[in-house]
Amino acid sequence: MKLKREFYQLPLQFDLERMQQEIAQFSDSEWAPHHENFKGNSAIPLISVNGEFNNDFKGIMLPTSALLRCEYLQQVIASFGEVVGRTRLMKLEAGCEVPLHSDINYHWYKRVRVHIPITTTEFVIFQCGDKRIHMAAGDCWIFDSWKFHKVENNSNQSRVHLVIDFSGSSRFWDMIEKIAENDSISCKFLNYQPQKKINIRTEKNNYQIIMSPGEVELLVNDLIADIQLCNLSSESTKEQFHRLLNNFVSDWRELWFLYGEDQSGWPLFHRLRNEVLKKVSQYDKDIFIDNGTSAVKILAQLIIGPSMNVELALQQSYPSVAKAMHEYEPTTTGLTRNSPCHCGSGERYKNCHGKIS
C-alpha cells in the first residue's frame, strides 16, 4: 500500500517472551520455503485461504491449525480489531535477504503489512525507498510496500516476524494520521491473558468473480496518475497508452452492463483482457511509473490478472457452474500463473510479469 512516508512505528508493544515461546514449538519441517525460492526465506501460514497451508490470496480467510496452537498470537492479531487477511510467521535465515522488490499486485494495493518482530538483532536492516531502519523485537511497524524495499539479515541468527495483512478501518488510519502529525499517543502493551476468548474477524470477500467497472476505472485512473508523475516517457507515448487504458475501461463497462458476473460473459471478458495485453505489450520498455517499474507490469498484476477470478464461482456457492467451469478453465481463462507471458519473453507469466513477492 502507498503511504505518505516510508515507515511508521505504531504505539503498540507485545509480550516478546510469550511470542518467542509460542513460535519455538514449530519444527524446522513446518516452515515452508518461499514460493519464489528466495534463499533463506520461509513462512508458516497463520491465516490463509480456507485455513489451509497455502500461499493463496483469493477466497475465505480462516485461521490455520498452526495459529490455533498459539494462544497469544491469536490475541495479538485480534487486538487490532481489523478484518484480517493473509497472516504469516516469516523467517529470514542468518546471512540471507529478502530481495529488493515492490508489492504492486492487487492484494497489497489496498492492504497494509503490519510487522511485529519476534526474534531479531540490531544487524537485521529493513530498507524502504532510501530509508533504512531496524525493527526492534516486540515493536510494531508498517511501511510503504509500493516503494522498492528489501530486508538484510546480517546477523548469525534467524529473524522471525509476525506479518499481518489488512486494509484498515477508519479507526486504524486515524491512529496513523495522529502518528504522522506527531500527536502524543500513549503506547499500549498487550498482556498475555490465559484462556481469553477472542474474536478474529477474517476476510470473506476479497476478490470478485468479475471486477466491477467502477473498480477497474479507479485502478486505471490511479495508474495513469502514477504514469504522469514519471518523466521517463514522452508525452505522446503516455497519451497513446492512456487511450488504450481508457478504451479498456469503456469496453469492460459495456460487457459488465450486459453480463455482470454471468458465466455467459466470461469468454468475452477474457478476450478483452487478452486483446488489451497484446496492445500494451509494445510499451513494456517505454512506459514507467516514478519508481521505475514498467506500467505494463503493473497493469498485468494490479488490474488485468485480478479482473477475472472465475475459480471463486465454486467457493461462492455457484454449484450450477461447477461443471461448466471445469470445462471452461483449461481453454479460455488463459491468464494463469503458468501461462506463457503476454510480453513474448518465452517465460511463464509467474516468472515474468506475474512475478510477485
Largest sheet: 6 strands, antiparallel
- N/C terminus separation: 14 Å
Tell me the Rg in angstroms. 21 Å
Structural class: alpha+beta
Task: Give a count of the beta strands, DSSP E runs of length 2 or more.
Answer: 14
Question: How would you summarize what this structure contains?
Answer:
By secondary structure, the chain is of the alpha+beta class. Helices cover 33% and strands 19% of the residues.
Task: Write the SSE topology.
Layout: E1 7-9, E2 12-14, H1 16-23, E3 32-33, E4 41-49, E5 61-63, H2 65-68, H3 71-79, E6 84-92, E7 97-101, H4 106-109, E8 112-119, E9 124-128, E10 131-133, E11 141-143, E12 149-153, E13 159-166, H5 170-180, E14 188-190, H6 213-228, H7 235-259, H8 266-280, H9 295-304, H10 312-315, H11 322-333
Parallel strand pairs: 2-14
Antiparallel strand pairs: 1-11, 3-4, 4-5, 4-6, 6-13, 7-12, 8-13, 9-10, 9-12
Identify the notable features of this structure and list them briefly:
single chain, six-stranded antiparallel β-sheet, four-stranded antiparallel β-sheet, 14 strands, 19% strand, globular
